[in-house]
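note to self — DONT lose this again. spent like an hour looking for the file last time. sequence + predicted structure for the chain T wanted, 186 res
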Amino acid sequence: MTKILGISGSLRAKSFNSMLLHAAAQTLEEGAELEVGSIRGIPLFDQDVEDAEGVPQVVEDLKARVLACDGLLLATPEYNNGIPGAFKNALDWLSRPPEDTAKVFKNRPVAIVGASPGGFGTILAQNAWLPVVRALGMRPYFGGRLVMSHAHRAFDDDGEMTDAVTKDRLRDFMRGFVEFTGQNSR
């Protein structure tokens, strides 16, 4: 069984990126599963907090989920043409303490997707993640790109993906990422 952990970089209750992850889970074929994680509750990184209190429990809980997965799927919003601060902050915390960075991230298969109500999707945020992925030593999936623009048209009021073309693209993307993850497991 290939286990993918999807993490949405949005805190919004009706986040298109969270909806995208739930839709991705529904497209997986037998032999793969996608669990959705959250960055909710992760405080701003503060070295003084880490020194005084250690890594917060909410971070340790998410870190345990990352360690248990075969591949990581980052669903990124794009804020002001870049990476959402809360999402980057979560990965910064996950890399703490420094001796955990390799254990958590080194050679971990990762794919980046994103959904936006705008016309350009999340292409700039996805590109901006690449130096972070490289710095953490992850193994990025470049077998396709999933940039969903006009996301507000692709989901119904219950958060279900209704756009058949996007659902097919998502299914193909996930099939490729699961295959990549299986070939590149740690």
